[in-house]
Design brief:
Length: about 325
């Protein structure tokens, strides 16, 4: 059975907290202290050391230390500091989001307006992906930490990519909107990069902690099975291994009226939201001229056709016709 992504991310954050806790304790207790230090001064000093510890692995250490120190209020709780590092990144993305709205109102060039609208959408995704890391904090198999770390890096990389893609959308635009957006995203991109750097150092930190061998072993579920990656569950591996003629679809799409729907979008409209079970759409032969809309909450959708040369889907969208590159995908969300 596939492990829910939320549980994996939550577990990886627990692991991250445990590691940072160990590092924080080591660094905090290294500093000298005097009997004349007041309690409040000692707490602030300890908090400062904890912030420095968590920022040690980052690429933008000054940004990391200054941003966390402003909001940490002297806390030495590594769990709160890790959480705060994500919240600070999200807050800066929200500030960039607000700036994009201001720039959009002032933009006269249609391409610039579209680029700014795309930025707002992408920044919403970035915030969602960072927030997901803390939505679930339960049930984590510590013997499978490597997979959890990889998953967390994937989420953070996606958040970073969304911000870069935002800036890519300003190609061939006029005015200073691109420069304004880059300035607005500078801090959030640095903070997201910092979070990714912390996760990237987990292997080194785990080595320093000298965890028992049980934490290092790879489970069978981590290994690719029959050329499928580990995150593809047994049910989906079985479905994907079958020839199309043996797959029992949930709905059938056919242009000749022999199916349940004549368009793929109509079929996807009846798909269950956030389902843990696969929803199979069989698309019969034909050329489907539509941009297929796949919402972010449409999970475990499987499309099966009659072959690459017989079942074709084309949205016919391109940059030359005035459509931003982000929105030219034949398969995408409502705006991208």
């Amino acid at each position: 059975m596939a492990v829910p992504k939320g549980a994996i991310i939550g577990g990886s954050v627990i692991l991250l907290v445990a590691i940072v806790a160990a590092v924080g304790v080591i660094v905090t207790h290294k500093g000298p202290s005097t009997s004349n230090d007041s309690a409040s001064h000692g707490e602030l000093r300890a908090g400062s050391k904890s912030v420095e510890a968590i920022c040690q692995a980052t690429d933008y250490q000054d940004v990391c230390v200054s941003s966390l120190s402003k909001s940490a209020n002297g806390t030495t709780d590594p769990r709160e500091l890790v959480k705060l590092s994500f919240e600070v990144a999200s807050d800066h993305i929200r500030e960039a989001f607000a700036q994009s709205e201001v720039l959009s109102k002032a933009a006269a060039d249609p391409r610039t307006k579209e680029a700014l609208e795309t930025c707002r959408e992408l920044m919403t995704y970035a915030i969602d992906d960072i927030k997901t890391s803390f939505d679930q904090l339960g049930g984590f198999d510590m013997t499978n930490y490597a997979k959890a770390v990889d998953e967390l890096k994937l989420w953070l990389s996606a958040a970073a990519t969304y911000q870069e893609t935002c800036l890519d959308g300003f190609e061939n635009t006029t005015g200073d909107a691109a420069g304004g957006m880059r300035r607005a995203l500078n801090a959030s991109m640095a903070l997201t990069d910092n979070a990714l750097a912390i996760v990237g150092q987990l292997g080194t930190l785990l080595g320093k902690l000298k965890l028992p061998d049980v934490f290092a072993r790879r489970l069978l579920s981590d290994v690719e099975v029959n050329d499928f990656p580990s995150w593809v569950g047994a049910e989906r591996r079985r479905l994907l291994s079958l020839p199309p003629s043996m797959i029992q679809p949930d709905v059938v799409v056919a242009q000749d009226g022999s199916g349940d729907f004549s368009t793929i979008n109509a079929a996807l409209a009846v798909a269950p939201i956030k389902s843990a079970k696969s929803f199979v759409v069989y698309v019969k032969n034909g050329v489907y001229k539509e941009k297929v809309i796949v919402f972010r909450n449409m999970t475990n959708i499987i499309l099966v056709g009659d072959g690459a040369t017989t079942t074709k889907i084309t949205g016919s969208l391109n940059f030359i016709d005035g459509v931003g590159t982000f929105k030219t995908a034949t398969f995408g969300n409502p705006h991208g």
